[in-house]
Every structure is written in structure tokens, then in C-alpha cells.
Amino acid sequence: TPCRRLCTFKKEAKLVSKRETMEAERSEEVKLLGTWASPFSRRIEIALTLKGVPYEFSEQDLTNKSSLLLQLNPVHKMIPVLVHNGKPISESLVILEYIDDTWQNNPILPQDPYEKAMARFWAKFVDEQIYVTAMKGVGKIGEERDAAVEATRDLLKLLEKELVGKDFLGGKSLGLVDIVATLVAVWLMRSEEIVGVKVVPVEIFPEIHRWVKNLLEVDVIKKCIPPEDEHLSYIKARMDRLKIKSVQ
């Protein structure tokens, strides 16, 4: 009957579509150039894992940059670099948006244009304000370090206000700003143990601490952040090197 033929056609069309999708996924080549301890390449791993995208990770030695890295990112010569079907994309915020546009399941950016613009704003704020300011205190002691800590806290207070009434910076679920701000939740807060200064004390930043707790309960985050003991050893060694340089 016409109805039976139509149903059969729809089933066959679905099977073809599913087969084509599976073949397309198998043909995708995704490679990430990064370093295991970098918050900037780790955030790309979080996004790819959240999207369920298989990828090859290529650990880079930034003290002896590979010809591959220099070839794929001749402008900045830095990680991370995402290579998708032979095409390289650099700069972590650009890569995160590319991932969200390319693999549209589990979106990390809102659909609403205003909310999307705000997410981009806060992501840049974390990288260009909080990170840059916090780094000014690395390897420093005394007044220089104290000034950097206070300046970082002033910026974090703005993030604190953004978290009031929210489970995540992305709202009810993990989003772009949460992924970018793992830089605060993991790298900055772990470094407190090494520096011996509480940059993000719970009595001043209860909302940030509540958010960190929520964040660290997300399976994708737990899977993609560096192992704590190994990471702390790395941070300590890096800070020791920076201290030596600052007194030379």
C-alpha cells in the first residue's frame, strides 16, 4: 500500500542518513598540539571530550619547539593548535568557538545573541584580565607579589558577582566561560599551595568556591584536568625557575 511504501522509504532514508553520519565521523581527523600542564590546551580537551570527538594529542616541548608546531602556527608559534582534517586553528578561544560551530551537540555557547556576547566577554575577561594580572605575581616576593594578589582579587570579585544564583558561569550547565575559567578553579587555586598565599580565600569568595565544587563534580572536568600531585610538582618547579630568573 502507499502508506507501507512511505514508511519503508522513511526507514531506509534514516538508515542511509545514520550510515553517512557514521562514515563522516570515521573520516574526521582531529589532532591537538598542546602540553599536559597548560590550561589553554586542557580547555580544548574539555570541549572535545564534552562533544564526544575522538582526537589525537601531540605533547609539545615549548623549550624546543617542533617543526610541526612552527609550521602549523607560524604567527604565534605557541600551543594549542587544533588540526581538523588538515586545517590548523590556533588560539584557544578561537578553537573553542570553532569546536562549538563544527560539532553542535552539547553546545557550550548560548543561542541567544546577547547571552553569547556576554559569554565571549567573560571568557576574554578571564584570559586578558585575571590571568595576566595573576601572572604578574609569579616568581615575585614581598610588595610586588602582594600588589599582584590584591589586583587579582579585585578582578575576581567581579566574577564572584556573576556567580550569584548560578550553578555555573554558563547558567545551569557547563559552558564556554566555565571551561575557560578552569584556569581559576584549577591552576590559580592549586598554585596557592605552592605560593603560600590564599589568592581566593573562601571567606571573600564563597560563590567561587561553591562554583569550583560544582565544576569538579562534572565527569568531563575530572577526566580532563591534570593529576593534582604531578601538577603541583610542575607548578613548584616552574615557580622556582621564575624566582631564580627574577633575582639574576
TrEMBL record:
One of the record's GO molecular function terms: glutathione transferase activity
Alphabetical keyword list: Cytoplasm, Detoxification, Transferase
Gene3D superfamilies per record: 1.20.1050.10, Glutaredoxin
Reaction(s) this enzyme catalyzes, per UniProt: RX + glutathione = an S-substituted glutathione + a halide anion + H(+)
EC number: 2.5.1.18
Ranges of residues in domain GST C-terminal: 112-235
Chief location of this protein within or outside the cell: cytoplasm
Family membership: Belongs to the GST superfamily. Tau family.
Descriptive protein name: glutathione transferase
Species this chain originates from: Noccaea caerulescens
